[in-house]
Design a protein that fits this description.
It is a single chain. It contains 17 helices and 18 strands. Helices cover 47% and strands 17% of the residues. It is an alpha/beta fold and 488 residues long. It has 3 domains: 173 residues, no CATH class; 206 residues, Alpha-Beta Complex (2-enoyl-CoA Hydratase, Chain A, domain 1), CATH 3.90.226; 60 residues, Beta Barrel (OB fold (Dihydrolipoamide Acetyltransferase, E2P)).
Length: 488
């Protein structure tokens, strides 16, 4: 069948099905974002914290990034609800020092009184985290200490790297222990064999080995003050009683998505990149719903991960949806008159993506500091630059593919009463050559119909959108394919 025919009887609203396809796809995407973003709300509905409650947070297993995300979420939840205290129940042999450093920062910035119950072990990095809490209690059979830095294989660090690590952590331990009322010399002795611990004339620990304290040693009173721990307790409930905590105990447990959240936050730039590209393809090919579904899934997964990581709240999802609606209104109703609404919507969407990555705690100033926005800015910048490059490549080469032309023509020229009543007379003799001018009959997105002489021709642009009734000129013909551009 030829790709051009004598002029059909065209309806003045021929692009309405196109607009409806865009609206349907966009609404599906928004619904998917809202539904997926609501999953963590349903998962955490059981964690109801009231003002004055004592929040119990487990700190078990390896010190790793997923544990950091969970602890950060738990601390934020306790602070936001006005909890009376937080009891961390620790049982760990240690883990990553970089993660321990971040957990230490989270605990030192907590505005709620913090208590630590060492249920069994506070080894290695766990002992350093323990010094970031204000009150320490230990079970009768437990230990704390032995925090020498080693490689992931268990081997010792090279001499220079070991000295640098111990020097840095010694300073961090001193400041953290002093802030929380603990003896800073103990923390240094946990990590360095060269540290001697002396109180008055009594040598608590001599040089030559790492310090490790049992529950009885840590609670020994010297000059009327416990060496490290406030006391020995049998359980979390016993800790609350001995510490005089009156609020009901409320447990906050890690959700099944906590480990997934770590990977999502790490892959945030890739999720944004894929989401932006698929959103572009959804508007470029309204008849193909797969790109819209993938874009919705990427953005929903982005917000889901950052919500579970304690970074994003429900309000950023609402901001993103509002921006998306404004962009949709701009495309459907104001595409040829103003860009203000679309620009505002775009900024709202970008702002919500950026704000979701900012690590802000309750009570902090509204405007984030430079350190807080450094990583979010980097991730957003990388995603946008990569997306722009990908879109430029797609705009140039995508219209030349058969899959794209099939979807574009299907959505731009749907069957209906406005086209069915007119006979189609095909003219095979019209010779189209580069430079021949005509006019677009439908909006070229980039495919559609144009009129040359007395004939209607199926045409495609090189990627640009051209409004109906706009003069066009032929720039290339390739068998059944006619490529046009705007005149001038």
């Amino acid at each position: 069948m030829s790709n051009y025919a004598k002029e059909d009887t065209l309806s003045p609203v021929v692009i309405t099905p196109d607009a409806r396809a865009i609206m349907r796809s966009f609404l599906r995407s928004i619904l998917a974002v809202v539904c997926l973003a609501a999953l963590p709300r349903l998962a955490e509905a059981r964690e109801v914290i009231h003002k004055g409650d004592t929040v119990v947070v487990p700190m078990e297993g390896e010190i790793s990034p997923p544990l950091l995300l969970f602890l950060r979420r738990a601390v934020k939840a306790a602070e936001s609800a006005g909890a009376g205290a937080i009891i961390f129940e620790m049982d760990t042999y240690g883990g990553r020092l970089d993660t321990a450093s971040e957990i230490t920062s989270v605990l030192n910035h907590a505005t709620v009184p913090t208590y630590l119950f060492i249920n069994s072990n506070a080894g290695s990095a766990g002992s350093l985290i323990a010094l970031a809490t204000q009150h320490i209690y230990m079970s009768p059979v437990s230990a704390i200490g032995a925090a020498a830095p080693v490689l992931s294989t268990g081997e010792d660090l090279p001499a220079t790297e070991r000295d640098k690590t111990i020097s840095y952590w010694s300073a961090l331990i001193r400041s953290s222990a002093t802030r929380n009322g603990h003896n800073p010399d103990l923390g240094e002795a946990f990590m360095s064999k060269e540290k001697e611990v002396k109180i008055g004339d009594r040598v608590i620990h001599a040089k030559g080995s790492l310090l490790t304290l049992s529950a009885q040693e840590a609670t020994e009173k010297i000059n009327g003050k416990p060496l490290l721990a406030d006391g020995i307790a049998d359980s979390v409930k016993d800790v609350a009683q001995k510490a005089g905590l009156k609020g009901p105990l409320v447990a906050v447990d890690p959700s099944g998505f906590e480990r997934l959240a770590f990977w999502i936050t790490k892959l945030a730039p890739l999720l944004l990149l894929l989401g932006i590209i698929c959103a572009y393809l959804e508007f470029k090919i309204p008849g193909a719903s797969v790109p819209g579904v993938v874009a919705a899934f990427c953005f929903a997964l982005f917000f889901l991960g950052h919500y579970l990581a304690g970074l994003a709240g429900w309000e950023v999802v609402a901001l993103f949806v509002l921006g998306a609606i404004l962009v949709l209104i701009e495309i459907l109703f104001f595409a040829h008159s103003t860009i203000v609404i679309g620009v505002v919507g775009l900024f709202l969407m970008l702002g919500s993506l950026f704000w979701a990555m900012v690590d802000r705690y309750p009570g902090e100033t509204f405007f984030p500091t430079g350190q807080m926005i450094a990583v979010p800015l980097r991730n957003l910048f990388l995603a946008l630059v990569a997306a722009v490059i990908a879109i430029i490549v797609l705009a140039r080469y995508l219209p030349r593919t058969s899959i794209y032309r099939r979807f574009a023509l299907m959505t731009a020229n749907p069957p209906g009463p406005s086209l069915a009543g007119a006979p189609r007379e095909f003219a095979m003799a019209l010779a189209l050559t580069p430079g021949m001018e005509g006019a677009a009959l439908t909006t070229l997105r980039p495919s559609g119909k144009a009129r040359f002489a007395e004939h209607v021709v199926d045409v495609v642009t090189e990627g640009e959108f051209i409004s109906a009734e706009t003069p066009v000129t032929v720039i290339q013909t390739d068998g059944m394919r006619v490529v046009v551009k705007r005149v001038g």
